[in-house]
Structures are given as structure tokens and as C-alpha cells.
Hints:
Blueprint: H1 4-15, E1 18-23, E2 28-35, E3 38-46, H2 48-52, H3 59-81, E4 90-96, H4 100-117, E5 121-125, H5 126-132, E6 144-149, E7 154-161, E8 164-170, H6 176-186, H7 193-201, H8 224-233, H9 242-268, E9 272-276, H10 283-295, E10 299-302, H11 313-324
Parallel strand pairs: 1-4, 4-5, 6-9, 9-10
Antiparallel strand pairs: 1-2, 2-3, 6-7, 7-8
Helix pairs in contact: 3-4, 5-11, 6-7, 6-8, 7-9, 9-10
Amino acid sequence: xxxxxxxxxxxxxxxxxxxxxxxxxxxxxxxxxxxxxxxxxxxxxxxxxxxxxxxxxxxxxxxxxxxxxxxxxxxxxxxxxxxxxxxxxxxxxxxxxxxxxxxxxxxxxxxxxxxxxxxxxxxxxxxxxxxxxxxxxxxxxxxxxxxxxxxxxxxxxxxxxxxxxxxxxxxxxxxxxxxxxxxxxxxxxxxxxxxxxxxxxxxxxxxxxxxxxxxxxxxxxxxxxxxxxxxxxxxxxxxxxxxxxxxxxxxxxxxxxxxxxxxxxxxxxxxxxxxxxxxxxxxxxxxxxxxxxxxxxxxxxxxxxxxxxxxxxxxxxxxxxxxxxxxxxxxxxxxxxxxxxx
Length: 342
Ligand code: KG4
Ligand code: ZN
């Protein structure tokens, strides 16, 4: 006969759901398996090498690569998690925003698995995946201002609760990561540009070049003026300038992101600020945002570095929180390349 203690333990484990998620919104193929808050597997196959020779992501190449990588990653993830697909409780995929032909691969696979195993399907917004990633392993999404900075998006969001989002500001032109990538290209550095610029900036003087901080009076963001300022400055420079230029450019981006995020938090009476997305890997951004939050009496949370760039663990986590709150999608739900948040 089982003791009350072991019965409690068994009923708790019975309630623990296992979600498998696929992320194929752009040039990363990813599969993750999450049991309640425990990450059992997270596999990411980057396609950077395949796209580098074209100077950017080619949608046709991306979707073909997702088709090659996804089944292999599914195998690797289930093997690493020591789980059979028949024991997964729900299948999730990123349904937008992103490249249509890429989104379709992950969503079709997840839908097929959901139908085949008679389990629920969850369509997850990629931006919500990033937004919730600072809470990974946690579960309680407290009201806060979220800064999402990636290669395709720059958003500040007033988060009242899980699923209750109000956009405060967004970029009117380039995303922050896009600005890093474009400036890196101008400087003859590799792709993705963010890590390349950050590495050189470590040795540089961020005050040497006075670059513009655009739209400081607005809640929205603009980075194309900054990119153009670097373009016009470059022909005038001689000698050893690379590290100083990288540091000055990076500081201009960080200044704008930090000032607007603190202003948004104060305006909404938030006491918590989060940052997520690929650009939040940047140590200067994380450090300076944290310092400013502490100075202003705000709490600060960032996604762990491995969760900042595109991955399926953040999609599995968003799906898990939604599943636990009773949400499932219809398998007939289509992908949406322009899917909005909120
Ligand atoms: O979130 P992510 O992987 O993909 C999108 O959803 O777009 O973000 C990729 C972006 C790229 O633009 C890349 O240059 C930028 O994140 N990034 C960085 C750093 N690491 C990645 N930007 C600045 N500093 C970094 N260390
Ligand atoms: Zn992303």
C-alpha cells in the first residue's frame, strides 16, 4: 500500500506535463522538450554558414535546411530526453512572426505530431517566447516592462500578466540587432554582427566618436540614422579606429535602449524590467541596464545568455505556461509571418 506521501508525489508527477516545441521562424532550426520547469533537451542547428555567402538569410535556403535539420533534431532531442514521442503531452511550434516558408516547416511538423498522437497543438508567438524567456524555470510572470531586442524586432512592452501585453514602443526602421549586423557589414566584420562588434568594442573608447541618439523624446526607437552616421563617418577615418568606432556605436545603441526602457518602466509604474532577444547577449547592454535599474530602484531580470538567441526552449516554456493556464490552439490555425504581439 502506498503512503500518503508517495501518493502526493505520484499525483504531482502525473500533473507534470511534457511539451515538445519546434522553432523554425528564421535561420535557426530548434527542438526542445520541457517537463514542467525542467528542460529535458534543447537542440539548435544554426544555418549561419549556409547564408553567410549570400550576405543575408535566403528564405528558400532556410526552409530547405529546416526540412533537413528538423527530423534529425527531433531524433536527437527525444534521445537526449530519453522519451518516446508517444509520451509527449502537447506539441508546439512558432507560428509567427518570421519567414512564411520557414514557419511552415516547424508548424506542419508540430501539427502532424499532434494529430498523429492525438495531443493538443499550441501555436506560439516568437516574440512571446523571447518576452517570457527571463522567467524560464520560474513560472510566475509578474507585471513588468519588457525590452525585446533581436535581429528583426525592437519592442518595449507593458506586461500586465501572461498573455496581457501592451506595446509601448517599437522601432520605426531598423531593429537594434539589424543595426549591429549592418554596421558590422560596413566595417567588414562577419555575420551576425552583434558579437563581432561587442568583441572589438571591449578594447575601444566609447566616447571617441559622437554618434546620434535618435528619437529620445519618443517611446519608439530608430536606428537607421545611427547606421547612416557610421556610413558617412567611415570615409573620413584613418589609422586605428575600429575598436573605438565599435565601442562608440555600441554605446549609442545601449544609451537609447536603457534610457527608453527606464522611462517606460517609470511611466507605467513598473517595479520590474526584463530584457530578452539576441541583442540582450550583449554584456554592455545587460550591465548598463542592470545598473540603471538598481539606481532607479527597479528590479531587473535578463534571460540567461543561452536563451537570448533563437532557440526552442523559450517556445516550449511559453507553450507550457499557456497549456497550464488552459490554452490550446486549433490545428487549423495558420502561420502568420506578421503575427503581432498582444
Ligand atoms: O533573437 P535572435 O537570435 O534572432 C531574431 O529573432 O532576430 O537575434 C539575432 C540578433 C542578430 O542581429 C545579432 O547580431 C544580435 O542578435 N546579437 C547581438 C549579440 N549577439 C547576438 N547584438 C549585440 N551584441 C551581441 N553580443
Ligand atoms: Zn528571435
